[in-house]
Design a protein that fits this description.
The chain is α/β, with parallel strands linked by helices and about 350 residues long. The chain is built from 14 helices and nine strands. The strands form three sheets. Strands 7-6-3-8-9 form a five-stranded mixed β-sheet, with helices on both faces. A two-stranded antiparallel ribbon has the order 1-4. The N terminus is likely disordered. The chain folds into three domains: about 55 residues; about 40 residues, no CATH class; about 190 residues, 2-Layer Sandwich (Nucleotidyltransferase, domain 5), CATH 3.30.420.10. The protein is elongated and about 70 Å long. Helices cover about 50% and strands about 10% of the residues.
């Protein structure tokens, strides 16, 4: 369904969005994937299609307008689509689901692109579900306080770190929605024995560490081993005797007495992120980018076991561009004032 949507999506981009894509490619040297993420398009294939159309005709306008049969769209059809969405309720629905219900319940037979166009006319958008925690007032206050502290820090001296889980056949669902908050769903813990990999990484404006693969449960001892083998070599290579701050979340293994004593002995200064705040840690943007790349490899390759998964993840990490990492860090720095202005709430 996602590919079906992407085939038609460039027809529904505004002229401003299309010229924005061209400018991003020609003047900012962004990749198709980065542009798709920035413009919330959902497909680098759409970006590629717009750019190649520009190269062929030196314009971004579509040539198919006013050709062929007229589109089946009117107020009654919009009402039917509204009824279908109301019937489906809080369930996830795709344009194919709506097309099927229009045909079965209302005897309206239209193409999927027509349904997509109607959904856009009704003010709906297409996006990927984001699993997050529902913030309490205490959480929001903590996010504001952390944001204020981060704004007075030297971002060139912060090492942003965290763990992330990669798993074979990880589900990624996109749906039609009216508000960005509709994409937020309660987070579920899933288990895929022998088909998942817990990794730890750290990035800074100076460079990145060697990605660490956890082979056991991540307790304090495992975390200290991770820091010894991955963080300390990074610090030696990029900072030497210069001061730096290790940015991490409040996971138990990060804040245990054993871990804190080890960090103190190694003269590692720690800055703890606010709870439920992945949006204020740039490495989460890095993980997201890696998972987009992994998702494509996962769908096109026959990954069978943890060893193959490990090899692919290490390769993706090694190919990360430092300029991209710096943009992730700058993005977090830029959104901190907005988070503070929203009194700690999520931006989206």
């Amino acid at each position: 369904m996602e590919e079906e949507f992407q085939e038609e999506e460039d027809y529904f981009l505004s002229e401003e969005q299309k010229w924005g894509i061209i400018i991003s490619i020609k003047h900012f040297n962004l990749t198709y994937e980065e542009i798709a993420e920035e413009f919330n398009i959902g497909s680098k294939g759409t970006v590629s299609k717009v750019y190649h159309k520009y190269l062929l005709q030196n314009d971004v306008q579509n040539n198919h307008h006013n050709k062929g049969r007229s589109t089946k769209r009117d107020d009654s059809m919009h009402e039917c689509i509204d009824q279908v969405i109301e019937t489906i309720g809080q369930k996830h629905y795709s344009s194919k689901d709506i097309q099927s219900q229009l045909s079965n319940q209302h005897k309206i037979h239209v193409s999927t692109p027509t349904v997509i166009n109607c959904l856009k006319t009704l003010g709906l958008k297409y996006g990927r579900i984001k699993y997050c925690h529902e913030l309490t007032q205490v959480n929001k206050d903590q996010r504001v306080e952390v944001g204020k502290q981060m704004l007075i820090m030297n971002f060139e001296r912060i090492v942003f770190s965290d763990e992330s889980l990669f798993q074979i056949n990880e589900n990624s669902l996109q749906i039609w929605h009216r508000e960005s908050t509709d994409l937020l769903q309660p987070k579920k813990e899933l288990s895929y024995k022998n088909k998942q990999l817990m990794v730890w990484g750290a990035v800074s404006m100076e460079g990145k560490c060697e990605l660490y693969i956890h082979d056991t449960t991540v307790d304090s001892s495992a975390y200290i081993t991770c820091l010894e083998k991955s963080l300390l070599p990074m610090i030696k290579a990029f900072y030497g005797r210069k001061k730096y701050v290790l940015f991490q979340d409040g996971a138990r293994c990060h804040t245990s007495k054993q871990t804190l004593e080890w960090c103190q002995n190694k003269k590692i200064q720690i800055f703890q992120n606010a709870p439920w705040s992945p949006d204020t840690n740039p490495i989460e943007l890095v993980w997201a980018s890696m998972k987009r790349v992994f998702k494509k490899i996962n769908y096109s390759s026959n990954i069978q076991n943890r060893d193959q998964l490990k090899e692919i993840i290490l390769q993706i990490w090694q190919e990360l561009d430092q300029q991209f990492i710096n943009r992730c860090i700058q993005h977090v720095k830029d959104i901190l004032p907005k988070i503070i202005k929203l009194n700690g709430d999520y931006l989206y």
